[in-house]
Structure formats: structure tokens, C-alpha cells
Amino acid sequence: MDIRIIEDDFERLPGLFGAWDFGMLLEDGRTYLVEDGGRTDDGQALYMVFRRPAARSGASS
Question: Model pTM?
């Protein structure tokens, strides 16, 4: 798996996430980038999630 270098001010959330995790991860008003993170042993897709800091996303603190 190739890991692309993010040239913007996105920060990576630690870990790999399944689609079922997105409801708990994503916050309203934030900007995200989602990349392929591979697959589990049983074939479920995993994703790397990057987000912009709140000040850059336009979200209030």
C-alpha cells in the first residue's frame, strides 16, 4: 500500500477506520480527506482519515 503525503494542513487521525466508524468520527463543519487504508482479514474496507484543524475548517471551537 502506498501512503500519499498530504501537502495541505490536514492531520491524520490515528488508526484505520471502517465505514461503520464514520458516524462517530465526523463532526459537522469540519473538512475531511478519506484515503484507502487496506482491508481487514475478512475483506472489509478500511480507511485512513485526515482532517483540517477546526480553525482552518471554519468550525467554531
Answer: 0.73
Q: What are phi and psi of 2, to 5 degrees?
A: -90, 140
Residue position matching grid coordinates 469540519: 30
Question: Is residue 51 exposed (0-12), middle (13-18) or buried (19+ Cβ within 10 Å)?
Answer: buried
Residue-wise pLDDT for 13-55, tens only, equals: 999 999 999 999 999 989 999 999 999 999 999 999 999 887 7
Q: Where are the domains of the chain?
A: 11-54
Q: How far apart are CA 58 and CA 1, in angstroms?
A: 32
